[in-house]
Amino acid sequence: MTQSMVRPRADAHAQAFADFAVRLHDSSSATETVEAVVQFAVPAIGCSHAGVALQDADGVITIGTVSSEVPGALYAAQIEHGDGPVIAAIQQNVVLHIPSAAAETRWPAWSRRAVALGLGSVVHIPLRAGTSPLGALSLYKQAGNAFSDDDLAIAHVLARHAAVAVATAQRREDMSDRVDARKLVGQAMGILMERHDLDSDQAFAVLRRYAEEQGLKLQNVVEQLIATRRVGHQPPG
Questions:
Q1: How far is the C-alpha of 17 from the C-alpha of 14, rounded, in Å?
Q2: Can you tell me whether residue 15 is helix, strand or coil?
Q3: Across 195-211, average pLDDT
């Protein structure tokens, strides 16, 4: 292959990743981020299907997004039983390249389901931000032994981009949630201060005391007060 043929292909890959990075940066939520990752992965690596599974701070694994029903069905079964290659990739922080789904013996139920869905080879790459597990990028091809070294190299780069973008999006969402929560607490305190001639410290103490007495989260008490204009069944004292 001549240098003139190689250079345009390399430039095309570089431009595609540059466009992808911009799209990730512009994503406003973790959901938009993983959707962008999956949409890019299928043509970039020539996959039949792709998906992203996410793990929250409590270790709960959920389906982030999938390109089709195939990875969705595989994810759902693994999450239900708490076992399978994507679970292992996330929890053990290991890349799992399964060249032949039919020959996989560690997860026989998964193997049978994958073959029944027409899959030959699968790759799960964990997504991490520092030491925090975020989930895994999953790539599927119909043929066995179908992932080349170049495919795997691109997949690793894609997973690194995805991990950074997902972590950034989640931080933005957490900050937004905290800001919204503070606004709601302030609104609830204002209601108590106006109706019962309390200062801010007293109003917050009422909210916190009621939450503790009823075994509720402060946010639930605040939302109840804003919706009903009272805490519980009686006006707070």
A1: 5
A2: helix
A3: 80
Nearest 5°: phi and psi at 64? -75, -65
> Residue 41 is inside which H or E element, if any?
helix 30-45
Walk across the sheet containing 49-55 and list its strands.
61-66, 49-55, 132-141, 121-129, 96-98
Is 177-228 assigned to CATH 1.20.140.10? no
**CATH topology of 3-174 equal to that of 177-228?**
no
The sign one gets for the Cα dihedral 103, 104, 108, 112 is: negative
Average pLDDT over residues 123-139: 92
Q: What are phi and psi of 164, to 5 degrees?
A: -65, -45
Helix, coil or strand: residue 219: helix
Whether 1 shows a pLDDT value over 80: the answer reads no
The model carries a pTM of 0.69
Residue 209 has a pLDDT of: 83
Which residues are CB-neighbours of 19 under 8 A, at least 6 positions away?
none
Tell me how far CA of residue 133 lies from CA of 5, 22, 54, 139, 166, in angstroms.
40, 24, 9, 18, 11
Q: The tokens 């996410």 sit on which residue?
A: 54
* 130 Rama class: left (phi>0) / alpha (psi -120 to 50) / beta: left
Can you tell me the distance from the alpha carbon of 26 to that of 177, in angstroms, rounded to the nearest whole number? 19
More confident: 69 or 2: 69
Residue ranges of domains in the chain: 3-174, 177-228
**Structural fold of domain 3-174:** Beta-Lactamase (3.30.450)
